[in-house]
Each structure stands twice: as structure tokens, then as C-alpha cells.
From TrEMBL:
<dbReference type="InterPro" id="IPR042100">
    <property type="entry name" value="Bug_dom1"/>
</dbReference>
<comment type="similarity">
    <text>Belongs to the UPF0065 (bug) family.</text>
</comment>
<feature type="signal peptide">
    <location>
        <begin position="1"/>
        <end position="27"/>
    </location>
</feature>
<protein>
    <submittedName>
        <fullName>Tripartite tricarboxylate transporter substrate binding protein</fullName>
    </submittedName>
</protein>
<dbReference type="InterPro" id="IPR005064">
    <property type="entry name" value="BUG"/>
</dbReference>
<dbReference type="Pfam" id="PF03401">
    <property type="entry name" value="TctC"/>
</dbReference>
<keyword id="KW-0732">Signal</keyword>
Amino acid sequence: MTPINRAVCALTLLTAANFGGTSIAIASGPCPARFIKMIVPNPAGGVGDLISRVVAEKASAELGQPVVVENRSGATTVIGTDFVAKSKPDGCTILSLTASGVVVSVLRENLPYKLEHDFAPIIGVGSLPMALAVPVASKLNSFADLGAAAKSKDGITYGSGGTGSLAHLSAVRLIKELHGTGNHIPYRGNSDAIQGLLGNQIQLFFPSTAEALPFAKSGKLRLLGVTSDERLPALPDVPTMKELGFAGFSPRLWFALLAPVDTPPNIVSRLRDGFAKAVIDPSVQERLRAYGFTTEIQNPPAVSAFMKNEAGRWSKLIKEENIKITD
């Protein structure tokens, strides 16, 4: 079991212990059902799952009823996102959205939902930088080695947690800026991609810092760079992409919570207040900062504007590189 999976299991057990034998005052919460269901449209064990569980645990206390994380992965976030879009707009089912969910909305032409029309933003939570990771067993000991491999006859083989994910587009953009070529291997989630990297099946992967840290600390992965503005305290020897000569290369895995459209404004407001208090709680902040997470609380209009800007930012690269989802 990986360190990320162990953390997820621990959080799941802790949540169960907190609510298993406790009578929650349901009437005080924003949802008329027994609990609030937070849908994570990614596989269990990934960073979206981990961050969602950290926040949900504290939000349960703030909202007055359990917030239970449920993974509904598949089709690069589409299955879980569509489930929330079609859920009853009563505050009992919400979506934990990351940047990959917005990218998919640009890549897929016939989605069963539209992010800008079928959801009511609740709150923007914050973001994580990405890490440029290579296998310890590889000959890629420096960024210069990586550049040479990308420009070689065979190019470089890179992985992702799925076509259209932020890790996928980050690698495409980097290889493009290196004037190299790459061969993409999509996995069923970031956890599987990390295992591919550990097994030396791929040469490059862009996990979030939350996913990369345990393996970097244990010496199982080599990190050549991070996309944060400054070096991370937990990784003081790893340069930023800006230091490596790529000042504009700063993809980040951001998080926001959405409800189905037509969710009553008073319920959205209660959810927003509860999650905002949870995110800024000192104990939650301490846990999130350990992964390089930066809290960036955004109100609903700001979340909508951010999603629109994020879609526009990646659409140019998608068109230039003719990236398509074929499944």
C-alpha cells in the first residue's frame, strides 16, 4: 500500500469513528438527508481524494452533519461530474472539481453536461503545484538530461492519469517548449501512473507535490523541478521551473466545490460558510501545507471566472497539439 493510500485509509477510518456512534443534529445542516455526499470524480488514493477527505473531515463538524467522500471515477472525471449534474439540487450531493475536470470540458465535444450551465459554484479552495518526476533508476539525473532525451530520436515516454488530465497537458507543454517529442501512456488515475514511474515503465510524470513528496522523501522518485513560485520548504533542493528557465510554466492542480444548478442560494451559502471555516482551520492548514497546498478561498463568481479562464488557457495547446480523447 502506498503512503497516499495509507493516508486515505486512515482518514476514512477516522471519519467513520467520528460519526459511527454519534447522533448528529441533522436539522442544523444544509442537507435534509442523513449526510452530505462529496463526489470525487477520480480514483481513490489520488490527490483529489486525499485533499477532499482532509477538508471533508473538518467540514463535517462545521456543517453539523457528516460529509462523506465517494469516488466515482471514469472517463477522466466525466462519470462522477455527470452524476452530480443530474443529482437533486438540495445540497446533499456536491462535486470536488479539479483542473482536469475543466480541461475535459474543452477536450470533449458531446459531454452530457456543461460546467458553466449545470453547476452552482460553492467555493474555490486552493491549489497544489506539480512536480516534474522521473524514476530513480533512470539516467535522467538532471533537467539537461531530460532535455536531451526529449530531443533524441526516440523522444521521451511520459505518463498521465488519463488523456486530458493536468499531468498530461503539463508534459505536452514541457516537451513542446523543449522542442522534443514524446510518447504518451495514459493510466487509470495518478496512483497507477506513479506505479508506472516507479517501475521504470515511463520516463516522466507530473504528479502533484502531495503525491510526489512521500516517494521523493523515501528516495523512490527523483524530482527535477516544481511548478510553484518559490522552492517548497519540504523540497528545498528541488528548483522551480522558473529557476530552470521556464518562467511561464506554472500549472497548478486547483480545487473547487460545486453543487447542481438550481441548488437554493441559502443552501449554497451555508455550504460555502462551512467549507470556508474548515479550510482555514489551523489544523487543516497544517496538514495541507505539508503537501505544498496553498489556500485560495474564492466566492462563486470568482470560481466561475477562474474555470472560464482555465479552459481558455489550455484550449490553445489542445488545438495546437491536436489532443483528442478517443475512448
